[in-house]
Amino acid sequence: MSYRPLASLGRCVPLLRAGLIAGIILAAVAYPIVAAAGIGAKVGAEFSEHKADLLRTTLPAETSYVYAADGKTLLTMFYEEYRQYTKLDDIAPSMQQAMVAAEDSRFYQHRGVDPKGVLRAFVANSQSGGVSQGASTITMQYVRMALRDSATTPQEVQEATAQTSIRKVREMRLALDVEKQMSKEDILERYLNSAYFGHRAYGIYAAAQIFFSKKPKDLTPVESATLAGLVKSPSEYDPVTSDQQEAIGRRNYVLERMGQLGYLSPEAAARASTEPLRIDQSDPRNDCASIPQRHNSLGFACDYLKNWWSAQPAFGENRLERIDKLRRGGYRIVLSIDPRIQEAAEKNIDAKGSTGSPFAHGVVVAEPGTGRVKAMAVNRTYSLDTSENGPTSNPEADPKVKANFPNTVAPLLGGGNLPGYQAGSTFKMFPMLAALDSGMPLSTAFDAPHRYRSEVYDGWAPSNASGAMTGRQTMWSGFGKSVNTYFVWLEEKVGADRAVRLAEQLGLRWRTDVDKAQASPEKVKKWGAFTLGVSDATPLELANAYAAIAADGRYCEAIPVLSITNRDGTPATYRTPAGLEREVAKPRCRQVVDAGAARAATDAARCPTGDRPARGSCGGWSTADSVRGTVGRPVAGKTGTTDSTRAAWFVGYTPELAAASFIADPDNPFNAVGDGQSQKPIDAVAKTLRDALKGQPTRQFTPPPDRMVG
Questions:
Q1: What does the pLDDT look like over 650-675, one tens digit per residue?
Q2: Residue 52: which H helix or E strand, with range?
Q3: According to the model, what pLDDT value does residue 351 have?
Q4: What is the CATH number of domain 84-274?
Q5: Count of Cβ atoms closer than 10 Å to residue 479 Cβ
Q6: CATH number of 421-553+592-708
Q7: Among 76, 128, 375, 557, who pairs with 365 as Cys (CB 3.0-4.6 Å)?
Q8: Penicillin-binding protein transpeptidase domain: which residues (predicted)?
C-alpha cells in the first residue's frame, strides 16, 4: 500500500472542505429537515413561501416622468434609480441571450439553483483563496435585487445584501420557490429590469438609453454583449470612464459564450469581437434644475409640484416618504401649466430682474372652479448655479451671501416655505367678503374721514393715502378708491377674526412669527391692520383666493397637475376621511361663502379696474382704471401697495382666469420698489389676461342678487 505525502494531502483539504460545505448548503436548500440541523435553520419554509409570493408581485423602483400640459412634451424626470420597466417582448432577443451567456448559461436547465455551478464555484474559490467565481444564478440574483428593492427598513436592506452564508442559503431557498411560481421568461424580464449597469442605469431601458441612446428593442448583438458584460462589475468594465480594453475584453468574452451556446455562429461571434467600441452616451435629466433651457421658466412650476407633492398624504406618511415615492413610483405626471398662458405671463413681466435688478416681478394665473395653476412666471432663471450672482441687497446679511438674481431656485411665487410679501390693500377683499357673507349689503355706507381713530383697536389711527378719499363711501366706492378708513371701520363691524378666518378658508397661510401671533385666537380680534395687508402672502395664494370669488365663492385648493397616473396606467388615488376613493389630480373644492356674497364682492371689485359694476356706483375714479381697456372684457381686481411702496401688487380676474402679480425685493423687504414701479403689476395682470383670453368668447359676471345690493 502506498501513501500520499503529507504535503500533498494538505493541498486536498481545501477541496474536500469546499465540497463538504457545498454539499451542506445544497442539502439545506433542498431538504428543510437537514437545514434545521445546520446553517439553514434560520430559513423557514413559511418565510420562504411568503417572500417568494412577495417577490412575484413586487416591481422594482421606476422613474417618474413630468410632462407639459399637452401630455407629450417631456420636461423632466424624478428618480433615485433611472429605470423604466420594459416587457421582454420589447427587449432585443440578442440582449436576452447575451445576459444568459454572461451570467447564467444553464439558466434554462436548472430550477433556480445550479448544483454544478455551486460546486464549481466553491472549488475555484478554495483554490484561489478568495472569491474568483460566483454561484449565483439569474434567479438568485433576481431574488437578491428584489429583496433589496422591496426592503422597508435598513435592516432588511442589510439582510438582502450581506455577504453571509445565511443570506446565500436564503437566496437559494427563495430561488427554488420563485421558479415554482414564475416562468423563466418572467424571471428574465424582472432580472433585466432590475440589474445595475453603471452610470445610474438601473434596468435595461436605462442602460440602452444612457450608453447607446436607443431603446432596448433596437440593441445589436455587439451592444447587447457590451451591456451584459457590465453587470458583473459596472465600474471595472465601464466603457465611458474606465479603460476601454477592459470593457472590450469583457464584451468579447460574452460574444464568445454566445457563440458557444449557439446564439451566434462562431463566425459572427468572431467578426463581432473585432468591432470597435462605439458609445453614444446620453445624460437623462433629473429633477427640476434639468428642465431644458427652452422651458426654463417651468422650473418654478416644477418646484411647486415637488412641494405640493410632499404635502399629499396619498403618497406617504411624511415628506420623506412622499418624495421617495415620487422618485421611485414610476408615475406619469402632466402639469396644469397652459403653454399659451405661460407664454403670455412671461412676455408681460419686467425682465430687469433677470439681469441686474434686485426686484422680483412675477405673475401666477389660476383657474376658477378647479384651482389648477395655469401659469407661473418670474423674472429669474431657474438654476442652482448662483456663482455669477451679485451680493445680496440685504445690509444685515453676510457680504458673501449671493443675491437671488439672475439665478435662483427659491419659490418666489409661492408653494414653498417662503412667507411671501406684504400684500397691501389686496387684503381689503377679505373683510368686504366677510361683511357681505354676514348679510351686510354693498350699499353699506360710512362717512370716511382722512384719519380714523379706532376704539375697537385700542386707539389705532390709520389714514388714507389721499385727501380725495374723504367722504361718504360704500363698498363699491371704498373698494374702487381703496379707502383705508372705510375698511378699518367695515372690519370693526364684521370682526377682524371673521375676516382672518375667511382668508384662511380661501387658502392663505401665516408663516412669519408676527403673522402667526396676530392670527392666534388670543390676538386675532384686535388685528385691525389686517385689512390694510400688513401680512405676508404669495402670488399663488392670492391668485387662488380671488379665483374662488370668480367661482361664486367656491374655493378649490391650488393644484399644479392635470393628471397623475400610476405605472400601470391607472389614476393615482387617495381615500378621504369619509372613506371615499378620489383621484389625486381631481380638483378639491368646497363652498366657502354664499354665492350671492361672492357675486356682490365681484361687483365692487369691478370698480378698481375702470369697469362698471352691474348695480352701483364707483364714485368717479379708481386705482387701476386702465385695466378694463387693456383686457377688453369684464374684469375685476384690486391694487395693493405697502408703506413707502416697498412692494406693489395687483390681483385681477375674469370669469375664466384669476391672476396675481407683485414686484418686491425678496432679499430685503425694506428695499422699496418705489411708486414708479407700482404700475408694473397692474399692466402684467391686464396684459396677461388679455393675451390669454384672446379669441375666446366674452363671458359676463353674474350680477349680485337684490338682497346683496341694499
A1: 999 999 999 999 999 999 999 999 99
A2: helix 45-57
A3: 81
A4: 1.10.3810.10
A5: 32
A6: 3.40.710.10
A7: 375
A8: 362-667
